[in-house]
Specification:
Length: 439
């Protein structure tokens, strides 16, 4: 029996996708699904979704509801993490408060001031989680989906280097799916290699047999003016490597786009877009809750192509698969700092998870990744030490923030966000006023 614990199961939309994928192996791998959330109503809805899936597909999986995290973790084989500390209101603050001072973000969940504070809000949760995992299920695989991925994984690796942890994100898969569709080649007929940091990895190789597919991509871009009006296509044309996250995300990790109104228009960006996406997720959750309350059937996709179910199946059956995951840089990427959270191919199977050494990156890609990781490193150190200077330094090093604001404006934004999030921040960072006269 494989016991899978979902921490943050109240992220119902995503939990539904994960369970849908996991159900593909439910007959081959006897499973118990333990669902945990601190919100009783969201937990109830998540359990309702899981039981509806079991009933619809005639699965043997056992579904358990756990209001207490420790009971959910005891003896677990895998722990899937999908928490969101602060909810929709925190997301609104991350986007609206900086925007009021002239700093534009589209998503705000990975880097920039939004990513920094999202990471700091989650620090207390991860401290508690790794302590509980060490005590209650030390052999479990922790499969993290929560953003900011690199910051959260950097923190977990620092707190608990002894635990088995993978940071999972579908961005590489869906990038390659999109590119394959664009050039008219089925993804199943291609091979590819990507590496870097989560949300800023780079497509290093992409082939069908011996054919390099990049010339086909170049031709598709040349033939479509609208396609050229996207950030990651613009990055690819200038740097020679395609980034593995959406244009909305990619714009935030660079100093070149969001600070210029002309570039925002040219590249069809929408500052603050994630607020609307988050509201749509809440609406979908409410619709799911209403359907369950009224006894209406739920619709389940055939598959959602998420990595965590593949990892769980491979660990249980021994069937090897290659996924992409965030792991510590232990000789995997030569151009990035040792120990830094990097995204590389990982082979999973009966023996566990084995990251693949990639070696070197194109110099300009490595340089951008290092800048990204500078922000990650300072944020992780801030969470560990509760030193506000490190928060300030993380923001000053962030490419989009540094390009958009003066240093005094950066301090003002940090003060605004500290006030908005004080209830969720580490104690030493909860009452800080940033400015040259404040330290």
């Amino acid at each position: 029996m494989t016991t899978v614990t979902f921490v943050g199961a109240g992220s119902v939309v995503f939990t539904k996708d994960l369970l849908t994928d996991l159900s593909r192996w439910a007959d081959d791998v006897p499973m118990t699904w333990r669902l945990h959330d601190i919100d009783p109503r969201r937990l109830e809805v998540a359990v309702g979704v899981a039981r509806a899936l079991v009933a619809e597909r005639g699965l043997t999986a056992r579904v358990e509801a756990h209001a207490d995290r420790r009971s959910a973790l005891e003896g677990a084989d895998a722990v899937v993490v999908t928490v969101m500390v602060g909810g929709l209101e925190a997301t609104r603050a991350d986007l609206r408060l900086p925007m009021a001072r002239g700093l534009h973000q589209t998503i705000g969940d990975t880097l920039g001031v939004g990513g920094i504070f999202r990471g700091l809000r989650s620090a207390g949760f991860y401290r508690g989680l790794v302590d509980d995992v060490r005590e209650l299920c030390p052999a479990a695989w922790v499969l993290n989906y929560t953003n900011p991925m690199a910051i959260n994984m950097g923190l977990v690796h620092a707190l608990a280097p002894d635990l088995k942890v993978l940071g999972l994100c579908h961005s590489v898969h869906w990038t390659m799916e999109t590119l394959s569709d664009l050039v008219g080649v089925p993804l199943a007929e291609t091979s590819f290699l990507a590496a870097g940091v989560n949300h800023q990895s780079w497509v290093l190789e992409w082939r069908r047999g011996t054919e390099d597919l990049h010339p086909r991509l170049d031709a598709a871009i040349a033939a479509d003016p609208e396609l050229r009006r996207r950030v990651r296509v613009d990055v690819y044309r200038r740097l020679g490597r395609f980034p593995t996250e959406s244009s909305e995300h990619s714009a935030e990790y660079l100093p070149w786009y969001l600070r210029h109104e002309s570039e925002v228009a040219r590249l069809r960006l929408e500052p603050g877009e994630y607020e609307g996406i988050s509201e749509e997720n809440v609406a979908e959750y409410e619709a799911t809750a209403s359907a369950l309350e009224e006894g209406r059937p739920l619709e389940f996709a055939t598959e959602a192509v998420e990595y965590a179910p593949q990892v769980i199946a491979s660990l249980a059956t021994g069937e090897e698969r290659t996924i992409y995951a965030t792991v510590p840089n232990d000789g995997l990427l030569d151009d990035l700092p040792a120990g830094a959270p990097v995204e590389v191919p990982v082979v999973v199977g009966a023996g566990g998870a084995s990251p693949v050494r990639v070696g070197g990156l194109p110099p300009v890609c490595a340089a951008l990744n290092r800048r990204f990781l500078d922000v990650v490193d300072h944020t992780v150190r801030a969470a560990l030490t509760e030193d506000p200077q490190l928060v300030r330094h993380a923001a000053l090093l962030d490419p989009n923030t540094a390009a958009s604001l003066t240093v005094d404006e950066v301090d003002a934004v940090l003060t605004d966000l500290t006030r908005a999030h004080r209830d969720h921040l580490p104690a030493g960072l909860a009452e800080v006023r940033y400015g040259t006269d404040a330290h």
